[in-house]
Amino acid sequence: MLEGLTARAMGALPLYAVRADGLTAFLGDLPAAVASFLRASGFAAKAGDFALLPGADGLAGAVVGLGQEDTPWAFGTLARGLPPGTAWRLAPGPQDPAQATLGWALGAYRPHRHKAAGPSPAVLEISPDAGPALVTAEAICAARDLINAPAADLGPAELAAAAAALAARHGGNCEIVLGDSLDQGFPAVAAVGQGSPRAPRVAVLRWSGSDSGPLIALCGKGVCFDTGGLDLKSAGGMLRMKKDMGGAAVVLAAAEMIMRTNLPVRLLVLIGAVENAISGTAMRPMDVLRTRRGLKVEVGNTDAEGRLVLADLLTFAAEQSPAMIIDCATLTGAARVALGPDLPALFCNDDALAGRLLAAGQAVDDPMWRLPLHDGYDSWLDSPFADLSNVSQKPMAGAVTAALFLRRFVPAGVPWAHLDLYAWNDRTRPGRPEGGEAQCARALHALVAECAEAQATRPTT
Fold it and tell me: What residues does the Cytosol aminopeptidase domain cover (predicted)?
């Protein structure tokens, strides 16, 4: 069971949810003394604001504001904000029980691998119709655990094992490619990881919810730690690089939601699990690397390693004739300069797919923002010594040129989207504690669910 949730609690207190435009009516239904107390406390039903309700014997309940919208974040502070160890049940009201459960569970999450548990959170009784929210919360919390794990605990072997364990739990299968097979089949992945004593590998997870469903390919950058290689990062730049496998964690979270909700699709998940380390065997600037697609890439900067990993994954995915390919990666600082930490950058070669992804993210409050694949910058990747360089020589549009690099490995006509994300919360906010975050995972699940529904309702000929 997720922390902060319980199947049943004796003596659970009522938790009321109130929209701002329903506050007057709510106050009118309360005992006069309690209503006066709420008015005096300044409670205005703003999203996430909450207040305890006094009773003759002490605590009679609590009320939380929804504002004007129904998002999970209105409930995101309650597990850690209400009195520790208290138990609560949702009273009938305007709230969506699934949204409430999701926000509560995501706000209750704390990493415990190397930190003693603090005070017990308040717990919420799970409502009968909150099942999908539990699936989502469990998948996101599992992804957070992966991202928050120190690199000493989570290397390429452990990340690939997480993919294999996920497949085993839900009736899929997972092949781990390493050694000579990796050198031959995924040479760019092998090159990125060759400087580390922890051998690189690729996890190839396959699952089917329908033999006739569309094939959805998800590719995740799984750089378990990124020193920058011989183009070494600064101390500050290296500080959070345990999260450089955040793209892999996101696609595993999305895959878990897809499998557990048994969507009628075929799923291919590719995880490039490597460590970008420094040693006598590490790749060097101006080395020329082979790729699975046959293109030769000059290493303009060893710290632009994630796109090399994804290049081979995208090529393999395209060979399987998917309906779409989506990759997720903590790829560029330039995307964060442009959009900040909360808005992943979306690049897409298909307007219809881009529109569906943006709509899916908006629907589940998991947003992203589209940036252009500007053809005019494509020549910035030219190299005099190879088919292309892994970086542009111009200090501008870094997120765009990274996406253009990836596009070279996606055949024309294959719908493809690239999500350049942060995978981290710099500070604690409602439902989003400081640390690893599975950005875009809920949006990807919503997109695949929408695709499956569209496929099921399409008329047959």
Answer: 301-308
DSSP state of 93: S
To which residue do tokens 């990125």 refer?
A: 192
Identify the active-site residue in 144, 307, 432, 442. Answer: 307
Residue 446: in which H helix or E strand, if any? helix 441-457
pTM tops 0.90, yes or no: yes
Work out the angle at residue 252's Cα, subtended by the Cα atoms of residues 309 and 218, and round it to the nearest 5 degrees: 55
Main-chain dihedrals φ then ψ at residue 111, nearest 5 degrees = -70, 130
- 337: phi then psi, degrees, rounded to nearest 5: -60, -40
Domain ranges in the chain are 5-129, 135-457
Q: Report residue 221 CA to chain centroid gap.
A: 12
* Mean pLDDT for the chain overall: 96
CB atoms within 10 A of CB 300: 19
Strand pairing class (369-370; 288-290)? unpaired
Fold match between 5-129 and 135-457?
A: no
Instruction: Work out the average pLDDT over 271-293.
Output: 98
> What is the per-residue pLDDT across 93-131, written as a single tens digit (0 to 9) for each?
999 999 999 999 999 999 988 988 788 999 999 988 888
Q: Is 72 in contact with 89 (CB distance < 8 Å)?
A: no
CA dihedral 35, 41, 44, 50 (to 10 degrees): -90
Catalytic residue of the set 46, 198, 206, 233: 233
- Tell me whether residue 233 is one of the annotated catalytic residues: yes
Mean pLDDT of 361-366: 96
| 307 catalytic per annotation | yes
Angle ∠(227,232,156) on CA atoms, nearest 5:
20
C-alpha–C-alpha distance, residues 88 and 218, integer Å: 38
Q: Report the C-alpha gap between 311 and 3 in whole angstroms.
A: 38
Q: What is the CATH number of domain 135-457?
A: 3.40.630.10
Q: What is the dihedral of CA 151, 154, 155, 157, to 10 degrees?
A: 180
Asked if 5 and 105 count as a contact pair (C-beta separation under 8 A), the reply is: yes
Q: β-pairing, 435-436 with 345-348?
A: unpaired
